[in-house]
């Protein structure tokens, strides 16, 4: 493996040797080649790169203030979500930024396409030779040692001095694809079995079988989730799909026939696609993650209109390209879904701070417009999205973003306890937001010196909430099987929020939108506190669950009746 210092020295020499690079200033860089990758050699100058550039947003601080203003129950403007145009005013680059970037693009013969409604993201394709010229760098081929996957990236790049303060970042450049990113966040499929759900369940009677097998009826009993059909057609629930994970309608029909006999087995979902995404209905193409997500949203959020959003796979961009595109796709809509659940994620350290900030701000935009954004927290305990060796705790992304809701996992029914795989911890990129400052401080005080030095004590803590995450029964390719993971928990909690939104809209009120200020204030008492279990990793027992919020199960698991009261119904 070539040393990083040698690579950077070569890049510096290259930049000095290029006449076009004389007014370039370093913009972003990596300190090291990401773990698991090694340098193969220079990229072919003819290789086409699909580039995205982000312009500096005009007023992200104003957007954040507006988001909290409409999302905090004590605010006079609570629930008065912003319109599409109002949000775009905070995000749209200034006229000076647009002029500067467009002039630079024109000088280099580049025609860009607007990728976001506010105009802060542009895209274009250029050969490696031109990218090296205009960014004063050298692109190389890097190989992931474990998988053999190759990618073209750089360790640093520069931009013209006149674009400083106008051009925020160039993507993907230093953002390496994570081979474990956008993997379905589930641990394993256990032995197949045919299970009949228990009958006549009530919230006061959870059958003992639910300790071994989770079905919609178990979750309805555990959390008091009603079976009463939703009535508001304007209330929409979105389910993200990536990496050619296809949601099979025949599997959904079989699932409903087995586990929701009180509703029509023909109940199905709508489909939206982007980036050449599709949703094959070949039985062999059924995806475990996609089937899980649609079966437990449709199977719990009775009659809430549900849309499966299938994002095409882009092997060059890696996972983050799809994350960026789905949010811009929804921001373009006049009426995006009121809830979006995503059961994919990756380690925070695989994402540059600039990209992480831009994605987080995109979640703030959707939240300000009234969308609750939920992500599974991950399945590696304190070692990241998936279990891996580590010396210090590995936060996951986007769970560390303060403008979305992270969902962890529990197991057992009497009482519930933290699932050992439930990813949780503290972001290294984002500070502790005000809405959870008191909860985090209380936990850290109770934790004492345990795991001292292994995590960022001033970071945004996650997950925010949790639900069951083990032994979920699903149907894949016509067969019943079981899965575990926080990806079971996110669609479960999304269904709870979607049903609350249905009641709110029916009462003439606004949907909940960005949840966290509500969850940590008037909503906190509507959760069952989980006080046992931990999330091991990095040769430690991880974080222990304790009274109050903790970085394993968050505030705990939902009680639907109490949540109804908390939202004023």
Automatic annotation (TrEMBL):
<dbReference type="GO" id="GO:0005576">
    <property type="term" value="C:extracellular region"/>
</dbReference>
<dbReference type="GO" id="GO:0004252">
    <property type="term" value="F:serine-type endopeptidase activity"/>
</dbReference>
<comment type="function">
    <text>Secreted tripeptidyl-peptidase which degrades proteins at acidic pHs and is involved in virulence.</text>
</comment>
<keyword id="KW-0865">Zymogen</keyword>
<feature type="active site" description="Charge relay system">
    <location>
        <position position="289"/>
    </location>
</feature>
<dbReference type="InterPro" id="IPR030400">
    <property type="entry name" value="Sedolisin_dom"/>
</dbReference>
<dbReference type="InterPro" id="IPR015366">
    <property type="entry name" value="S53_propep"/>
</dbReference>
<dbReference type="InterPro" id="IPR050819">
    <property type="entry name" value="Tripeptidyl-peptidase_I"/>
</dbReference>
<feature type="active site" description="Charge relay system">
    <location>
        <position position="487"/>
    </location>
</feature>
<feature type="binding site">
    <location>
        <position position="548"/>
    </location>
    <ligand>
        <name>Ca(2+)</name>
    </ligand>
</feature>
<keyword id="KW-0325">Glycoprotein</keyword>
<dbReference type="GO" id="GO:0008240">
    <property type="term" value="F:tripeptidyl-peptidase activity"/>
</dbReference>
<protein>
    <recommendedName>
        <fullName>tripeptidyl-peptidase II</fullName>
        <ecNumber>3.4.14.10</ecNumber>
    </recommendedName>
</protein>
<keyword id="KW-0720">Serine protease</keyword>
<dbReference type="Pfam" id="PF09286">
    <property type="entry name" value="Pro-kuma_activ"/>
</dbReference>
<feature type="binding site">
    <location>
        <position position="530"/>
    </location>
    <ligand>
        <name>Ca(2+)</name>
    </ligand>
</feature>
<keyword id="KW-0106">Calcium</keyword>
<feature type="domain" description="Peptidase S53">
    <location>
        <begin position="213"/>
        <end position="569"/>
    </location>
</feature>
<dbReference type="Pfam" id="PF00082">
    <property type="entry name" value="Peptidase_S8"/>
</dbReference>
<dbReference type="GO" id="GO:0046872">
    <property type="term" value="F:metal ion binding"/>
</dbReference>
<dbReference type="InterPro" id="IPR036852">
    <property type="entry name" value="Peptidase_S8/S53_dom_sf"/>
</dbReference>
<feature type="binding site">
    <location>
        <position position="529"/>
    </location>
    <ligand>
        <name>Ca(2+)</name>
    </ligand>
</feature>
<keyword id="KW-0732">Signal</keyword>
<keyword id="KW-0645">Protease</keyword>
<keyword id="KW-0479">Metal-binding</keyword>
<dbReference type="InterPro" id="IPR000209">
    <property type="entry name" value="Peptidase_S8/S53_dom"/>
</dbReference>
<feature type="binding site">
    <location>
        <position position="550"/>
    </location>
    <ligand>
        <name>Ca(2+)</name>
    </ligand>
</feature>
<keyword id="KW-0964">Secreted</keyword>
<keyword id="KW-0378">Hydrolase</keyword>
<feature type="active site" description="Charge relay system">
    <location>
        <position position="293"/>
    </location>
</feature>
<keyword id="KW-0843">Virulence</keyword>
<dbReference type="GO" id="GO:0006508">
    <property type="term" value="P:proteolysis"/>
</dbReference>
<feature type="signal peptide">
    <location>
        <begin position="1"/>
        <end position="17"/>
    </location>
</feature>
């Amino acid at each position: 493996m070539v040393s990083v210092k040698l690579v950077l020295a070569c890049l510096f020499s290259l930049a000095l040797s290029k006449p076009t690079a004389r007014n370039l200033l370093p913009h972003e860089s990596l300190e090291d080649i990401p773990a698991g990758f090694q340098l193969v050699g220079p990229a072919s100058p003819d290789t086409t790169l699909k580039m995205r550039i982000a312009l500096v947003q005009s007023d992200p601080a104003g957007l954040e203030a507006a988001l909290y203003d409409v999302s905090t129950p004590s605010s006079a403007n609570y629930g008065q979500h912003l319109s599409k145009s109002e949000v775009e005013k905070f995000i749209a680059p200034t006229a000076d930024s647009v002029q500067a970037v467009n002039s630079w693009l024109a000088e280099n013969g580049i025609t860009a396409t607007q990728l976001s409604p506010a105009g802060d993201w542009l895209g274009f394709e250029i050969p490696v030779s031109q990218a090296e010229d205009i960014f004063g760098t050298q692109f190389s081929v890097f190989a992931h040692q474990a998988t053999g996957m190759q990618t073209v990236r750089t360790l640093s790049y520069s931009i013209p001095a006149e674009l400083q303060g106008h051009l925020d970042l160039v993507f993907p450049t230093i953002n390496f694809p994570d081979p474990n990113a956008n993997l379905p966040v589930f641990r394993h499929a256990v032995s197949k079995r045919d299970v009949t759900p228990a009958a006549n369940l009530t919230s006061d009677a959870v059958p003992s079988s639910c300790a071994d097998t989770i079905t919609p009826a178990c979750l309805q009993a555990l959390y008091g989730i009603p079976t009463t059909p939703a009535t508001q057609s304007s209330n929409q629930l979105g389910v993200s799909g990536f990496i050619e994970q296809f949601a099979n309608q025949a599997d959904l029909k079989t699932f409903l026939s087995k586990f929701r006999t009180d509703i029509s087995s023909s109940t199905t979902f709508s489909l939206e696609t982007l980036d050449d995404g599709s949703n094959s209905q070949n039985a062999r193409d059924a995806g475990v993650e996609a089937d899980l997500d649609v079966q437990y949203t449709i199977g719990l959020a009775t009659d809430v209109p549900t849309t499966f959003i299938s994002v095409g796979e882009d092997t060059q961009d890696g996972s983050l390209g799809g994350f960026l595109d789905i949010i811009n796709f929804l921001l373009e809509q006049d009426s995006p879904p009121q809830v979006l659940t995503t059961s994919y994620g990756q380690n925070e350290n695989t994402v540059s701070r600039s990209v992480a900030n831009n994605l987080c701000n995109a979640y703030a935009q959707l939240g300000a417009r009234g969308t609750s954004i939920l992500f599974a927290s991950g399945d590696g305990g304190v070692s990241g999205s998936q279990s891996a060796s580590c010396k210090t705790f590995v936060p996951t992304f986007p769970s560390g973003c303060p403008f979305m809701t992270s969902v962890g996992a529990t197991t057992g029914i009497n009482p519930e306890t933290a699932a050992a795989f439930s990813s949780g911890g503290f972001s290294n990129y984002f500070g502790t937001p005000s809405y959870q400052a008191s909860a985090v401080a209380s936990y850290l005080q109770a934790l004492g010196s345990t795991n001292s030095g292994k995590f960022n004590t001033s970071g945004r803590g996650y997950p925010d909430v949790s639900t069951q995450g083990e032994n979920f029964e699903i149907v894949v390719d016509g067969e019943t099987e079981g899965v575990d993971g926080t990806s079971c928990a996110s669609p479960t909690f999304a269904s709870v929020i979607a049903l609350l939104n249905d009641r709110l809209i029916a009462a003439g009120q606004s949907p909940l939108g960005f949840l966290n200020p509500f969850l940590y204030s008037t909503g906190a008492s509507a959760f069952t506190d989980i006080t046992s279990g931990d999330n091991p990793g990095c040769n430690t027992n991880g974080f222990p669950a304790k009274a109050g919020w903790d970085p394993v199960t968050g505030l705990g698991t939902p009680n639907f009746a109490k949540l109804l009261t908390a939202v004023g119904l």
